[in-house]
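Tutorial, part two.
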Amino acid sequence: MLFKRMLLGILSISILATPIFAQTTTESIQKKPNVVYFLVDNVGWGSFGVYGGTVPTPNIDKLASQGIRFNNYNVEVQCTPSRSAIMTGRHPVRSGTYTVPWPGQGKAGMAPWEYTVAKLFSDSGYATALYGKWHLGNTQGRMPNDQGFDEWWGTPDTWDESGYTQWPLFKESGVPVPMLWEGKRGQPSKAVMPLDLKVRPIVDGKYIIPKTIDFIKRNASDNKPFFVYVGYSEMHPPVMANPNFAGKSTERGGVNADVIAEMDYRVGQVMAAVKEAGIEDNTIFVFSSDNATGGAEPQLGGSTNGPWRGDFFNVPFEGSMRVPAMIRWPGHVPSGVVTQEMFAAVDWMPTLAGMIGASNLVPKDRPIDGINAASFMLGKSNTTGRDLYPFFGIDGELMSIKWKTYKSIFRYAESPVSVGKPYVKPQIPLVFDLTSDPHEDNNLMYTDLTLGWVFAPSFKWIEGYEQSVKKYPNIKVGEDFKGYANK
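Running the prediction step on this input gives:
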C-alpha cells in the first residue's frame, strides 16, 4: 500500500479496482499465419531511418512501410523482464523475472509453470523455434525447449558472458565457461561451443540468421505453420562489429553505425527468405527492441533514443522504455500506418493469440496484464485499447505510470550515470506532459498543484494491482512455482 498512502496525501479520491484480464476481440478466421518475431537487443528509439536515425536502414524502413509502426511502444526495465513480458503477457514482477540473479545467486528465469507464447503456438499446431538469446532460465527445466519451443540454439543467458574468459582470474571464480547451447523438445539441452570474444562478432551472421532461414524453409516446404523467435545479439555489450561490416563504408563511422548496418542486412535476409519460400502473404513479421541503451555507450560512436530522455540506466524516463516496434502481415495488417497508440511488450502474447484465432488458450488462472489488440492490428479498430502503462524497477517496485499523454514518476534514477546509485524518491511525484515536453524536462508539479487530478488513473490501477496480488501473490525470483491453489 506504499503508493496509495503516498498519493492519498496529495489527492483524496475514490479508489476503484480494475480488471486484470485481457478483453477478447474479433479474431482472424483465415488459414493459420506463420509468425516471425525478430527481437533486437538494447536498440534505442532513434536508431533506424524511419525513426530519424542517420545510418541507412533500407530493409527495416521497408518493413515499417508495409505495416504498422509504433511510436509509443513500451518495454520493461531490462532484457530479462522485457523477454518475460513478451513470452507470458504478464508484468515480470508477477513472474519473478524483474531482475537477474548474478552467478552464484540461485536460479534465474521463469518457473516452468508459466504459459509462454511459444506454448500457445505449439498448442495451436505450430512448429516453434528460438535462435539467439533466451535469458529466461539457464538450468534444465527452464530452457527454451522446456517452455514451448521445439528446437533452439543460442545462449540461455546473455552476450556479456562472451567476455568472461578474457579475464586472467576467471578460472579461479568457479563459474563455468560460458557456452552456446542447443536443444530439442523432450530432450535435455546441451552445450555445443564456447561463447567467447571470437564468436561474439559473427554469431548473428554465421549462426543465428542461417538457422532461422533454414527453419523457415523447412516448415514452408512441409506446409506447416511456424513461429520463430529471433533473439538477435546486437547491440548488447560487448558490442563488436562483424568483420564483414566493420569500417567497410565511408558513409558510416564507428562501431554503432556498422552494427546497425549489419542488423538491417540481417533483417533483409529473413524478409527475403520468407518471400522466396512463397509465404510472405501468410506471415506475420514482428520487429522490436527489448531495451534502449541510447547514450549509455558513447565510446561506440554514440546512439540515440530520439527525442526522449533517459536510457538503460536512467529510468523511468521515456528513453528507457520507449523503443522501436513494427508489424507486417500483407493483406491483413494495414500498410503505411504510423501510430501514437500505446502498446507494450506484455501485449504481444494476447494480441498474437487473437490474430491466429487462439485467444481461448490465453490462461485464465493467473493475472494477464497484456491486452488483445488484434482488432487494431487488423485495421478493425482505431485504438489498441491501452491508455495506461506501469513501469517497475529492478527491485520489483513501481517507478512510474504513463496515462494517455501524462507521465507520473514516483521514483527515478539520476543521470547521466546511475550505476551504483540508489533510486531517488521525490517528495511529490513528478508529472510530465509528453506531448509538449517529450524530454521530460519540466515537472508540472514544481510550482502548480492544480494538476493533482491526473493521479486518479494511477490510484485506480494501483488499487487493482494490489488487489490482484492479494489473490495471486507474485512469484519470487528463482521460485519453482507450481500454481495457485483453488483459483
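The radius of gyration is 22 Å. In part three we will examine how such features are distributed along the chain.
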